[in-house]
Amino acid sequence: MAESKKGGHRVLVFRPYPAQVGDKIFFQGGPWGGDWEIIEVGDRKIKLKCPVSHKEIEKDRFFYFMEEREDEPWPHGH
């Protein structure tokens, strides 16, 4: 990691995303890559459903905001 001219460092800051039921999400790569819809949100867990296969998975809440896109096609071509 590079040190800035002021003596500080470049730091990446991640904020937990306030996910809500009905949010449509897309993971670019990774083991769950693809389209998902949030169908349940708890204090510690989140449940997702694939709009194509209808598979449901439950995971620890791990979402961190990276980018928001408007007018994005969903689900994406598979």
Question: Can you describe what's shown?
Answer:
This protein has strands at 24-27, 34-41, 45-49, 56-60. The protein is mainly beta and 78 residues long. It has a domain at 24-60. Strands 1-2-3-4 form a four-stranded antiparallel beta sheet, with no helix packed on it. The mean pLDDT is 83.
| Low-pLDDT windows of residues | none
Instruction: Tell me the span between the first and last alpha carbons.
Output: 36 Å
Q: Structural class of the secondary elements? A: mainly beta
**Helix fraction?**
under 10%
How much beta, percentage-wise?
25-35%
Largest sheet: 4 strands, antiparallel
**Number of E-type strands:** 4
Order of helices and strands: EEEE
Overall morphology = globular
How large is the count of helical segments? Answer: 0
Strand order of the largest sheet: 1-2-3-4
Rg for CA atoms: 16 Å
What do the pLDDT scores average to?
83
